[in-house]
Amino acid sequence: MKCVNFDEAFERYVREWMRASSARLGGNAERMEAEMPEVYLRFLNEPADWLDGQTPALYFAAYDDADLLVRWMVEYFQKKVPVPDQLLERIVDLGAPSEARLLQLLDDPQAPYDAVLTAITLLRELGSQAPMQRYVDLIAGCPVPHEQADMCAESLQAMGPKVVGPILQALDRATPVAQEVFLDILCNYPGDERIYQLAMRKFLQRPCALFASMLGKLGDARAIPALRQAAASPDVNYLDYVEIRNAVEELGGDPLPERDFEGDPYYEALKQAQD
């Protein structure tokens, strides 16, 4: 399979267009930028000699073999050639056959890391819930934050409330980092005592804006005393204080007393940005 560099081809196309349009546009960068979307559409829809007369827009549309297309995508990554958007779009267009092949790619230990990340993205675009448990298990074992876990979490978010059960079952074996990732998802689905207890435990360990906002989302007024106590701490910074204050108000608590944050680096930076 030939891994054509569409990006390089478009750069050549733009350079030729700029030379041909220089007199008309007078070197005006803003006018050139404004016309760029139209230039790109022309690039996509003009027959190209570097594609044997086919148009970039339809080059991959001639293929309906999901296995071939996914292997082609992997080869692009292996050869370190930018993967054309049109190839990725065609993989998604094929639907269920592509889903099955992308799931295989997730389990391929020899696959390039970026190809696996792309497979996660494409499965999300396909609306696939098949890798739900795979994603939960991967996140649960994360000792430190990393990109693949973040992408799995985004996909779990997109799957909706069905993820709550599998995540709750994984909490006891999840690393501290994984628990925070899971909590960011779970706080969108209040009602289970385990979610509230985890959010409160994390907040008491580190009373910061992140966990305060999660407690606010959960809507449980039992969190108000702990939030108010954290807001009164002499160690609280301005950004954390603001989110804690917002959470208290979201939970129906009385407004917090005003505090002077003169000298706080976050407060001073925000004040300078507003001046």
* Strand portion: under 5%
Give the overall silhouette.
flat
Report the strand count.
0
Number of helices: 15
Q: Pairing-aware structural class of the strands and helices?
A: mainly alpha
What's the gyration radius in Å?
25 Å
**Spans with pLDDT under 50 lasting ≥5 residues?**
none
Count of the domains: 4
What is the helix fraction of residues, given as a range?
Answer: 55-70%
Can you give me a brief rundown of this structure?
The protein is mostly helical.
Describe this structure in words.
This protein has 275 residues and is mainly alpha-helical. Helices cover 64% and strands 0% of the residues. It has helices at residues 6-25, 29-45, 66-78, 85-93, 96-106, 113-125, 132-140, 147-159, 164-170, 176-186, 193-205, 209-218, 224-231, 238-250, 265-274. Helix 6 packs parallel to helix 8 (147-159), helix 7 (132-140) packs across helix 8 (147-159) and helix 13 runs antiparallel to helix 14 (238-250).
Topology overview:
Layout: H1 6-25, H2 29-45, H3 66-78, H4 85-93, H5 96-106, H6 113-125, H7 132-140, H8 147-159, H9 164-170, H10 176-186, H11 193-205, H12 209-218, H13 224-231, H14 238-250, H15 265-274
Helix pairs in contact: 1-2, 3-4, 5-6, 6-8, 7-8, 10-11, 11-12, 12-14, 13-14
Supply the key terms.
mainly alpha; flat; 275 residues
